[in-house]
Amino acid sequence: MPLAATETYKNYIGGKWVQSKEGRTFEDRNPANRDDIIGIFPKSSKEDVDAAVQAARKAFHSWRLTPAPIRAEILFKAGQMLMQKKEEFAKLMTREMGKVLKEARGDVQEAIDLIFYAAGEGRRLFGQTTPSELPDKFAMSVRTPVGVCGLITPWNFPMAIPMWKMAPALVCGNTIVFKPASDTPLCAAKLVEVLVEAGLPDGVLNLIHGSGEEAGMAVLNHPDIQLISFTGSAQVGKEVALKSAEKFKRVSLELGGKNCILVMDDANLDLAVDGAVWGAFGTSGQRCTASSRLIVHKKVVKDYTEKLLERTKKLRLGDGLLPTTDVGPVINETRMKKIHEYVEIGKKEAKLLTGGSPFNEGDLAKGNFYSPTLFGDVKPSAVIAQEEIFGPVTAIIPVENMEEAFHAANQVRYGLSSSIYTQDVNKAFKAMRELETGIVYINSSTIGAEVHLPFGGTKDTGNGHREAGQTMLDTYTEWKTIYVDYSGKLQKAQGID
Fold first, then answer.
1. Are 224 and 148 in contact (CB under 8 A)?
2. Which element (helix H / strand E) includes 398?
3. Which positions ≥6 away from 357 have C-beta within 8 Å?
């Protein structure tokens, strides 16, 4: 596609679409066809972030005083608009980040579900009332907004994850500086367009495009941003936590995963294979909840491996817009090289059953495609069983019994999602107790989430905060405790005469 035919996009600051101060730009390319330039976007600097924060600070006073039900009405309207644009946005997402169209529809739907759920809080945002220990005294707690929020989001769920952060932040009365991933800037711009058209006042939501190293760090380090919400790698998340601690910022981290499916000797093997194929190779394995470890009882590992290998070999790579495609491209060439480095390590540690290389033949030669890869006879301590690969790679780990399976499952630095396939209710309940993850599935894959339940994990998966569900409010609000003494006299604390 010639450069002259490519649309140029802008930042959104203080209610206006503006170029970056320095005029620098970057290209947004289709991972299924690197010749396809989707758009030209501003490469923002600290100066652009400063302008966005100034606009957000200015808008905060009036936005926080806007009644929460009125804030919610804007979100409800935006949700209705997203419903109308679902197919358009899903196709755009597939072109920009590569996931197959049916998954892209799910991504947009999750954004819709979350925005409606968060908007419902406009008439709740419940605090507490409680009896006072003193006569003629009233006690309660209420939620108040935090202030200016810096939201830094990844590319793998370019509409769902931003909305997980933006919708609760907005309904709670905060203002936003939003820095999306530089691999998916167009999805971010389209979300902002919808919220603006729905009626968000100027300055409440500000969009800054650019690199994490420059624009992202400027957001992170800005003294007038009170809260950072970041989704990404554990390595970067640690830096976010340390930088935020220096300035006493509130920080919410949703980081990596090394998720496992446990397949017990009484499992429905066909169902467990379905779960592994979806969990390991959906979104080309580019999910924090991807099923990158398959811990299988030795009594069934041979049959399970044969069934899974047969299914994996039949998966079709291609452009996600084609109905024949099962697995789309990975996001960029850098990511593809990193995946291959892990696979090369895996070849020395375990038995490669299928895949194991980039796929660049025929119509796919210009895309970032990696063959769905399956390893067998993997030890729980192997590198490919310990580190997050974030690609279409999974490892079968044989175990002797359920106790050994639990040990292998918990023997990683992450704790996001886990799953067990069993037809024994006793085993299922033991798994609910023993698996050290924030999410546990019974007879289902490790991926997927419902927006009215908390999402997040333990260990290096984050810092204890949860997205979605009621717990999302705790990230974006401060608690204020209020006492009203109507006794007409000084009442001292309990135990003081």
1. yes
2. strand 393-399
3. 340, 343, 370, 371
pLDDT score, position 3:
39
**Would you say 158 and 187 are in contact if contact means Cβ atoms under 8 Å apart?**
yes
Give the integer Cα–Cα distance in Å for 69 and 74: 9
Spatial CA neighbour of 108 closest among 168, 9, 191: 191
Question: Among 103, 288, 388, 467, which one carries the catalytic annotation?
Answer: 288
The pLDDT of residue 492: 87
**Res 223: pLDDT:** 97
Q: How far is it, in rounded angstroms, from Cα 465 to Cα 448?
A: 18
pTM: 0.96
Phi-psi region of 344 (alpha: psi -120 to 50; beta: other; left: phi over 0): alpha
Pick the CATH number of 259-442 from 3.40.190.10, 3.40.309.10, 3.40.50.300, 3.20.20.240: 3.40.309.10
Q: In whole angstroms, what is the distance from residue 211 CA to residue 230 CA?
A: 14
pLDDT given for residue 360 in this prediction: 87
Instruction: List the chain residues with pLDDT less than 50.
Output: 1-4
Q: Please return the burial class of 10, using the count of CB atoms within 10 Å of its CB with bins 0-12, 13-18 and 19+.
A: middle
- Sequence letter at residue 6: T
CATH of domain 3-255+462-481: 3.40.605.10
DSSP assignment of 217-272 = HHHHH-TT--EEEEES-HHHHHHHHHHHHHTT-EEEEE----EEEEE-TTS-HHHH
**260 noted as active-site residue:** no
Helix (H) or strand (E) holding 54: helix 46-65
Instruction: Please tell me whether residue 414 adopts helix, strand or coil conformation.
Output: strand
Identify the H or E element spanning 441: strand 439-442
- Among residues 103, 254, 388, 467, which one is catalytic? 254
Asked about 254 being catalytic, the answer comes back as: yes
Tell me 200's DSSP state: P
What DSSP string describes 129-183?
EEE-SSTTEEEEEEEEE--EEEEE--SSSTTHHHHHHHHHHHHTT-EEEEE--TT
